[in-house]
């Protein structure tokens, strides 16, 4: 192929000893973040602690900011803003924003979850985000979340992660008796109301009243003894069911990582580590770790919350400049994953415009569906700006579309940032089996995403 032709670069093919070492050592830190931050609450707390270690201080509205300040805003423990104030004029140069999300598809307990059927105690659930339900049966599950008790105190829950913890479960049929289920479509095989979590099997035989000699009663006794909980406390709880296993290297060569929740912690981690490591940047930088992306970026902790522009207003106010000027000159990387090209399912991808594993950070100019509908379609000029920054800093990147035209589609936080009149583009790591309980990414792409974030902040 001539010099004039466009060709993707395979990172592993190109990498020297030094780069390979950096790729593999960076991945180790990421795996710890994955294992310790499986929900937005845990990921938010983890990143906040990392920021505090780097000298970040809590921000209160009304407080004036000045060059050199490093602050964080913890929004309800689920959404984190990190701001490093630089020396550049924010009205003229704007600020540099990297927005990633820290919520992942999962299965949430309902508010009245407990019931018993034929000596098995279960919890009713309502899934969160776009999952393929059949993938969540017959795997070990952990219970994470928070219970806000009647006295206002909050009980943090994490069961199923410790080696000695029990795990939870959703059952599926044995093949011997699954003929009828096998005839259903994959989407219909397991329904939303079939995602019932197995909780226990031992009845409370010591009960005085015969009608209390149930498995559910025994469960309530355990919950009360261990956590001081009553059944009513589930009403004010957010309990999430997530896969119970840890992140693992995949393949003989360990090139890939399999884990729950790469989408979108695989972009969140590069975002805040790049902020910490790009200490000398003259730009004012804002890293957003958003919640609720998987259900449309709604709510107080989602990207559509006014908090985003409120914080830019606060920066503008500190310098006595119009917020509109700051936003008009700002730039944002919407750091989110893209569908990686999967040779096992070639038919859903268009080969020229797919993001390939280990070919670097993937830029997605537009998302959406049916004629780019619902997409922030980034400007060519903004891509050119990034091309230059990436070339100057040796970042390996590629372009990738979310599947063949009219096969499906998706969205990110990009359009909500762009709505504030901020140049925004999607960039992230290609993922295989996205939204499944065990997603796969390449360590090389993870590292290039980190380098891309650093180049953007330089
Ligand atoms: Mn995502
Ligand atoms: Mn997603």
Please describe what this structure looks like.
The strands form 4 sheets. A 9-stranded mixed beta sheet has the order 1-2-3-13-4-14-18-16-17. β7 and β8 form a beta hairpin. It is built from 13 helices and 20 strands. The radius of gyration is 23 Å and the shape is globular. The chain has 458 residues and is of the alpha/beta class. It folds into 2 domains: 11-104 and 260-457, Aminopeptidase (3-Layer(aba) Sandwich), CATH 3.40.630; 106-243, Aminopeptidase i, Domain 2 (Roll). The model has no long low-confidence stretch (mean pLDDT 97). The chain has helices at residues 11-14, 17-36, 40-53, 90-93, 179-182, 186-189, 215-227, 262-277, 307-319, 323-328, 380-392, 414-418, 443-457, and strands at residues 57-58, 70-75, 79-84, 95-101, 106-117, 120-128, 141-148, 154-159, 197-200, 237-243, 248-250, 256-259, 284-290, 331-335, 338-339, 361-364, 397-399, 423-428, 430-431, 439-442. The site of one manganese (II) ion has 3 residues, from loops. One manganese (II) ion binds next to α8.
């Amino acid at each position: 192929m001539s010099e004039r032709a466009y060709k993707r670069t395979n990172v592993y093919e190109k990498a020297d000893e030094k780069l390979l070492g950096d790729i593999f050592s960076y991945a180790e830190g990421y795996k710890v973040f994955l294992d310790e931050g499986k929900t937005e609450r845990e990921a938010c707390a983890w990143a906040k602690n990392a920021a505090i270690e780097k000298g970040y201080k809590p921000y209160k509205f009304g407080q004036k900011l000045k060059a050199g300040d490093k602050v964080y805003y913890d929004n309800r423990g689920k959404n984190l803003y990190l701001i490093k104030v630089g020396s550049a004029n924010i009205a003229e140069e704007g600020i540099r924003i990297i927005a990633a999300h820290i919520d992942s598809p999962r299965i949430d307990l309902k508010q009245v979850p407990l019931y018993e059927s034929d000596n098995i105690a279960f919890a009713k659930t309502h899934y969160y985000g776009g999952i393929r339900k059949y993938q969540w049966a017959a795997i070990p599950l952990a219970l994470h979340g928070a219970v806000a008790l009647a006295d206002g105190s909050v009980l943090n829950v994490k069961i199923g992660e410790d080696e000695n913890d029990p795990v939870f479960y959703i059952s599926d049929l044995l093949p011997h008796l699954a003929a009828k289920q096998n005839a259903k479509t994959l989407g219909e095989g397991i329904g939303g109301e079939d995602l019932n979590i197995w909780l226990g099997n031992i009845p409370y035989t010591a009960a005085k009243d015969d009608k209390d000699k149930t498995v559910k009663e025994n469960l309530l006794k355990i919950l009360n003894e261990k956590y001081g909980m009553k059944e009513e406390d589930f009403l004010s709880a957010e309990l999430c069911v997530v896969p119970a296993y840890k992140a693992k290297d995949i393949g003989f060569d360990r090139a890939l990582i399999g884990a729950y929740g790469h989408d979108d912690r695989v972009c969140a981690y590069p975002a805040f580590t790049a902020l910490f490591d790009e200490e000398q940047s003259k730009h004012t930088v804002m890293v957003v770790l958003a919640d609720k992306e998987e259900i449309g970026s709604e709510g107080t902790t989602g990207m559509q919350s006014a908090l985003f522009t409120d914080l830019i207003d606060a920066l503008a106010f500190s310098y006595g400049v119009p917020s509109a000027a700051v936003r008009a000159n700002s730039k944002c990387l919407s750091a989110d994953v893209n569908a990686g090209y999967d040779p096992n399912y070639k038919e859903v991808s268009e080969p020229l415009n797919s993001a390939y594993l280990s070919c670097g950070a993937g830029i997605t100019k537009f998302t959406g569906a049916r004629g780019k509908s619902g997409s922030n379609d980034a400007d060519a000029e903004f891509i050119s700006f990034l091309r230059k920054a990436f070339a100057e800093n040796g970042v390996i990147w590629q372009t990738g579309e979310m599947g063949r035209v009219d096969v499906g589609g998706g969205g990110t936080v990009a359009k909500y940032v762009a709505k504030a009149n901020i140049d925004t583009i999607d960039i992230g790591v290609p993922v295989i089996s996205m939204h499944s309980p065990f997603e796969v990414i390449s360590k090389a792409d993870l590292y290039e995403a980190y380098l891309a974030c650093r180049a953007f902040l330089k």
